[in-house]
Amino acid sequence: MELRQLAYFVAVAEEQNFTRAAERVHISQSGVSAQIRRLERELGAELFDRSARTATLTPAGAAALAPARAALAAAEAVGQAVGDVAGVIRGRLTVGMVVGCTVTPLFDALAAFHRAHPGVEIALLEDDSDRLAEGVRAGTVDVALIGAATAAPAGLEALTIVSERLVIAVPPGHPLVHRPRVTLRDLGDHPVICMPTGTGLRAVFDQACAAQGLEPTVALQAGAADAMADLAARGLGVAVLSASMAEAYRDRLTARVIDDIDIPALLCLVWRTAPGPAARELLAYGRRAFGGTHGGAHADATHDGGLPEPAAPGDDPEDSRAASPEEQ
């Protein structure tokens, strides 16, 4: 029995899907399946019911899950105990990033962290903000960059990177362009293009509408600002974006602040209270990388949990490749 087999088993149990588990552990689905079959042969019992689309635990699998997690935690604790003595951080770090949001300072922080701590394997996961926040709470994600409607998502520590107003983005000849002010009620006469439920921007929009008892028609949904802008430019609706997102399309769209939405759209780094050494060190690099402004918006540090300054990075730029798990 190998630790990697237990790691694959736990990943499939948590994802309830072999494909998603394979993406999470960064090997092929066939590699995950082969190792779990080998583990099942060694244990003399099937761990998963594979008859449906979801991989559900058998009674034997359910009994094995807690000991498997404990074994992985114990192995990590052994490595960390030695690392603490030697001053070396090792292990695996899962970083979440909201879909459709390319944030260069986050990549800068990851690169600097990786140069300083090449013994830490970094995994990057894209998803919507709600699922990423749940992943952080559950411990499957260490640090995540999410969109949010509150500076302190429930149960999490947060560092606010961007805080800005919501705007509409429409073609120059659109009727809303010439109004003295644009309100949520004005959107009731037009189809709305918005991000899907589960994103921070949509949460802000829905909360603001609910506070006024409004139900605007969200005619089209898209997870990427480029898609929303293209749809709006073709006259298919009024795109609801954050101010800095709309700025990128000013050559073809006119942005107007939605005057009566006073809830800001936030972009935050989130993590659990008392993060592990690797996550804590990455957060220190993140705080330094996000020390200025991003996307033309104010970067406001909130609930930073007393993050330390990062340790001095290593001197050898060649030693920067993260090891990936073997498939077989």
Please describe what this structure looks like.
It is built from ten helices and twelve strands. It starts with a helix and ends in a 39-residue tail after the last helix. The strands form three sheets. It has a five-stranded mixed beta sheet with strand order 4-3-5-12-6, with helices on both faces. With 328 residues, it is an alpha/beta fold. Helix content is 38%, strand content 19%.
Strand order of the largest sheet: 4-3-5-12-6
User: How many individual helices?
Assistant: 10
Percent helix range: 25-40%
Mean pLDDT: 82
Low-pLDDT ranges: 292-328
Task: Specify the oligomeric state.
Answer: single chain
Query: How many strands?
Result: 12
Please outline the major beta sheet: 5 strands, mixed
Q: Element order, helices and strands?
A: HHHEEHEHEHEEEEHEHEHEEH
Structural class: alpha/beta
Between the first and last Cα atoms, what is the distance in angstroms? 13 Å
- Percent of residues in beta strands: 15-25%
Please state the overall shape, judged from the principal axes of the Cα atoms.
elongated
Radius of gyration: 23 Å
Protein topology:
Blueprint: H1 3-15, H2 18-25, H3 29-43, E1 48-49, E2 56-57, H4 59-86, E3 91-98, H5 104-116, E4 120-127, H6 129-138, E5 143-148, E6 157-164, E7 166-170, E8 192-194, H7 200-211, E9 218-221, H8 225-233, E10 238-242, H9 243-247, E11 254-257, E12 265-271, H10 277-289
Helix pairs in contact: 1-2, 1-3, 1-4, 2-3, 5-10
Features:
328 residues, alpha/beta, 10 helices
Q: Could you provide a short overview of the structure?
A:
The protein contains 10 helices and 12 strands. By secondary structure, it is α/β, with parallel strands linked by helices. Helix 1 (3-15) packs across helix 2 (18-25) and helix 5 (104-116) packs across helix 10.
